[in-house]
Amino acid sequence: MAGQILPHDVHGTGPVRVIVLHNWFGDRSSFDALRGHLDGDAFSYAFLDCRGYGEAIDHDGAYTMEEVAEDALAVADHLGWDAFSVLGHSMGGKAAQWMMLEAPGRVRSIVGVSPVPAAGFPLDDATWELFAGAAEEPGNRRAIIDNTTGGRHGDEWLDVMVDRSVGRSNKAAFRAYLDSWSRTDFHERVKDNPTPVLLVAGAHDPALGAATMEATWLQWYPNARLEVIDGAGHYPPEETPAELATAVERFLGD
């Protein structure tokens, strides 16, 4: 599979290089609140839009984690980055693992923010209908975001999250990515992988919180460690950007 150089921008000019992959509900603008807390002198962050999102909203594709990984590697090639770390939020965390498998000599470490495990994320029938229906129904997106942040945010915050999700993703891509991040399983390929991994989970995330990290990622990656952010649910880049930036740069700067 040949990757495409997707729309992206680089924040910072530092020697530590990081590819950043967004979540299912947001394009690269979902990291806007985080940028102001990042150290651009020590780090360079390349934020990119997956096919079907943001400035790549009209890009056709298979809309799979493998494709996200290939596209991200194409962006790294375009930037001349031979080695780098990968930060992936939610489904971006699953794609980051594909990058590691495809380019093991280039991916120095992974930061998974509320990351989907390599085994995917099983959903019961009712929950599957809720998630699959979110491609067409903004109300489903709102319910999912509200639930995965512990029901702690008001209408204004939820409106912003839903409006961005609807306006900056196309329905076909949104629906197809669900199959890839939730139902594909390659965890046998990542078992005992020595790549350093930081897992950042929100204390109020009932789906991809600490318990899920302990049962999946921490079982498979011997050099993984977990940090829990007390004030966050599933969306630390938006909920607690300063705390997330501190955790990420402490890890990447080691």
TrEMBL record:
Descriptive protein name: Alpha/beta hydrolase
InterPro entries, per the entry: AB_hydrolase_1, AB_hydrolase_fold, AB_hydrolase_sf
GO molecular function ontology, one term from the record: hydrolase activity
Organism domain of life: Bacteria
Span of domain AB hydrolase-1: 18-239
The keyword Hydrolase is assigned to this record: yes
Keywords assigned: Hydrolase
